Amino acid sequence: MNAAERFLNYVSFETTSDEEGKGSPTTPGQRIFGEFLVKELQEIGIENPHIDENGYVYGFLPASAGRESKPAIGMIAHMDTAPDVSGKDVRPAVVRCTGEDIPLGGGAVLSVARFPVLRDCIGQELIVTDGTTLLGADDKAGIAEIVTACEYLLKHREVSHRAVALCFTPDEEIGSGADLLNLDAFPAKEAYTVDGGELGEIEYENFNAASARVTVHGVNIHPGSAKNRMKNAVLLATEFVSMLPPAETPAHTEGYEGFYHVSDLHGCESEALVKLLVRDHDRASFERRKAFLTNLCAYLNGVYGEGTFELSLTDSYYNMKEKILPHIHLIQNAEAAMRACGVEPKIVPIRGGTDGARLSFRGLPCPNLSTGGVNFHSIHEFIPIPALEAMTRVLITLAKGQFETKE
User: What is d(CA 87, CA 313) in angstroms, rounded to the nearest whole number?
Assistant: First the structure.
C-alpha cells in the first residue's frame, strides 16, 4: 500500500481532539484510530506495536544486519486533528491540478488567486476536501509517510538501515501531545516529528507560546436605571481587545514576527471572557508581551475598580532552537536526505509549535519535517500525492543514513 492509499484510509477516522476533554486521549476516536494503527503495524512486521494507557502508539523497526550498533532514529507524528474545523465524515477527493480554480463543494473553492501555491502543483493529483471539513493531512499524512517508509524497509531486506523507533501521539493540536510520551521506553535519543507543511520545509525554530484568559467581572443593573451603576462586562472586554496593538495580530505578521491572537470573546453584562494566544520567537520579546497584558489589566483595574479584570497566563511551549543547535547534524542530515530525493530543503521558522518543541525540552532533540500538506486547519486543506511519495522517500533515506554527518 502506498502513502496516498494509506492516507485516504486514515482520514476516515474522526480524531478531533477536545481542549475541554478529560484524560488522554481526550476523545474516543483517537484511541480507535490508534488501535487500528497497532494492527496495521503488526501486519507489516513492526516489532512490539502497542497502544499504552494514555493512547500513545509505539513500534520498533530493528536495524538491518551490520547496523545494530548504530543509534536508532525516532519518527513521530500525531493522530488527532484540530478542533478549529470539523473532522467528522471527511470525504476526500482526488483531483488533477490544471492551474484553474478547484471547486470543492458547498460553494467552497480552492482559488489560485488566494492560494498561489496551486501554480506549483500543475499536472499533479491533489487530495482535497469536499468543502465542509478539514482534510487531516495535519498529521495523518505524517503517519502515512512513516508507516509506508517502514513497510518499504521491511519488504526490501537488502536495504541497509538503522533502527527506527515509532510513536504516534494523541492531542497534539491542543498542546498536550508530548506530555505523556514515555521517553524511558522510547529507544531513540534523537527524532523527527513529521508534522510540517509544504514539501521541503525543515523547522527547528518555533514560537515561544502562552495562552491567556481575561475574565471581566461586571455589574448588571436594569438598563432603565443603569446610569453610573452598570459595568457592562462585554463592553469592558471589547475595550481590552481594542487596546491590543492592532498591527500585531496573525493577519498582519509573518516570519519571526510575534502576535496576540484573540481566539474567543463571549459573555454578558455580568461576566465576559476573552481568550487569546501570545506568540513570539524571541524569548525576551515573549516575556515583554506577557508583561504588557499584565500591565494592561492593571491599568484597566485602576480605571474600573480592582478585580474587574482577572488575568490568567499559562506558558505552553518554548522555542526549540536552543535545544537543536547542539544537534545540528539532524538538520544537516535532513537537508542531505531531501536533496538526495530531489526535494529542495527550506529552513523556515514554525509560526506555531509541534510535539517536537516540547519533546526537545524534555531531552529528545526533535526538529520538524514537512508532510507536503497545505492550508492546515481549514476546509481548503489539500496535499499533492507526489508530496506524499517524496516525503516517504525522504524518510527511507534518513533511515538508511548514508548522508549522515553523525550516527
Answer: 29
Q: Kindly report the CA angle at 63 between 57 and 64, in degrees rounded to 5? A: 135
Round to whole Å and give the CA distance between 135 and 84. Answer: 12
Q: Which of 14, 80, 138, 381 is catalytic?
A: 80
324: part of which helix (H) or strand (E)?
Answer: helix 321-324
Give the SS3 label for residue 279: strand
Name the active-site residue from 139, 145, 171, 172.
Answer: 172
pLDDT digits (tens, 9 = 90+) for 363-378: 999 999 999 999 999 9
Q: Containing H/E element for 242?
A: helix 233-242
If you compute the radius of gyration of the chain from its CA atoms, what whole number of angstroms results?
23
Instruction: Name the 3-class secondary structure at 260.
Output: strand
**35 a catalytic residue:** no
Instruction: Count Cβ atoms within 10 A of the Cβ of residue 242 and give its class: 0-12 exposed, 13-18 middle, 19 or more buried.
Output: exposed
DSSP character for 131? S
Query: C-alpha cell of 112?
Result: 489560485
Residue 249 cell numbers, joined: 495580530
Predicted local confidence at residue 405, as pLDDT: 55
Residue 80 designated active-site: yes
C-alpha span between 186 and 183 (Å, rounded): 5
| Residue indicated by cell numbers 492592532 | 246
Instruction: Quick: pLDDT tens for 125-170.
Output: 999 999 999 999 999 999 999 999 999 999 999 999 999 999 999 9
